[in-house]
Design brief:
The structure holds two protein chains of two kinds. Chain A contains no helices and eleven strands. By secondary structure, chain A is an all-beta fold. The termini of chain A are far apart. The model of chain A has no long low-confidence stretch (mean pLDDT about 95). In chain B, the strands form two sheets. In chain B, strands 2-10-9-4-5-6 form a six-stranded mixed β-sheet, with no helix packed on it. Chain B has a four-stranded antiparallel β-sheet with strand order 1-3-8-7, with no helix packed on it. Classes of the chains: A mainly beta, B mainly beta. At the A-B interface, strand 4, strand 5, strand 9 and strand 10 of A face strand 5 of B.
Chain lengths: ~110, ~120
C-alpha cells in the first residue's frame, strides 16, 4: 500500500505571493498523480492530473511537477479564491490513496 | 454538463445498513468507471471503492472490504454503495466521482465529484 505524505500541513501566504506545496509517495507512482482543491462545504475539484496537466478550466497560475516519489503543486500568485485545502492522490496502484492535505491560509 | 447527485445518507445505528445512490447525467454513464470517496468530519479524503464501466470489475479499500458493495445500473445511470455492518468510524460525507476511463486496469483520477451525502453511524 502506497502512503502519500503532504507538507506542510498549513501554509500561510499573502495574496499575490507564490505557494509551493509538496507531496511525497512511499514508493514510485510514476507520473500517476492528481491534485485537488477543496473549499469549505464544497466537494473537491480536480486541478492537475498526470502530475503536470491542468484540468479543463484551471487557471495557468496552477502548475504541477515531479515524478516518481516527489511532487510539487505551485500556485504562482495567490488569489483570494485560492485559499483552500489541497490534496494529492496517487492512481498508480490499488488501493488508491490521498495525502493528508495542505491548508493554504491567508497570512 | 456532467452532474452527480448522491442520496441515501442519514443516521444509522452501529451494525446497521444503508444504501447510497448516485444519479448521473450529462455523459455516457456506461463509458466511465465510477468511485466512492469519503471524508470524515474535519478530516481528509479516503478512497472507498471503484467499479468499472461495465460493472464487472470492482476494488475496495481494506477498511470496507467485506462490508461494503459497489454496483451500478447502467440502464438507470445510477451508482450504488451498499454499506453493511456499519461502524462509528464509517461516519463521513460520501462522494461519488466520475473516473476518467471505463476500465480499472489501473487507478483513475476523479472529475467531477458530487456534492456528497452524510452518513452518521451512532447509537
Amino acid at each position: 500500500e502506497i502512503v502519500m505524505t503532504q507538507s506542510p500541513a498549513t501554509l500561510s501566504v499573502s495574496p499575490g505571493e507564490r505557494a509551493t506545496l509538496s507531496c511525497r509517495a512511499s514508493q514510485s507512482v510514476s507520473s500517476n498523480l492528481a491534485w485537488y482543491q477543496q473549499k469549505p462545504g464544497q466537494a473537491p475539484r480536480l486541478l492537475i492530473y498526470g502530475a503536470s496537466t491542468r484540468a479543463t478550466g484551471i487557471p495557468a497560475r496552477f502548475s504541477g511537477s515531479g515524478s516518481g516519489t516527489e511532487f510539487t503543486l505551485t500556485i504562482s500568485s495567490l488569489q483570494s479564491e485560492d485559499f483552500a485545502v489541497y490534496y494529492c492522490q496517487q492512481y498508480n496502484n490499488w488501493p488508491l490513496a490521498f495525502g493528508g492535505g495542505t491548508k493554504v491560509e491567508i497570512k | 454538463e456532467v452532474q452527480l447527485l448522491e442520496s441515501g445518507g442519514g443516521l444509522v445505528q452501529p451494525g446497521g445498513s444503508l444504501r447510497l445512490s448516485c444519479a448521473a447525467s450529462g455523459f455516457t454513464f456506461s463509458s466511465y468507471a465510477m468511485s466512492w470517496v469519503r471524508q470524515a468530519p474535519g478530516k481528509g479524503l479516503e478512497w472507498v471503492s471503484a467499479v468499472s464501466g461495465s460493472g464487472v470489475s470492482t476494488y475496495y479499500a481494506d477498511s470496507v472490504k467485506g462490508r461494503f458493495t459497489i454496483s451500478r445500473d447502467n440502464s438507470k445511470n445510477t451508482l450504488y454503495l451498499q454499506m453493511n455492518s456499519l461502524r462509528a468510524e464509517d461516519t463521513a460525507v460520501y462522494y461519488c466521482a466520475k473516473d476518467h476511463t471505463a476500465t480499472l486496469v489501473m487507478g483513475n483520477w476523479f472529475d467531477p465529484w458530487g456534492q456528497g451525502t452524510l452518513v452518521t453511524v451512532s447509537s
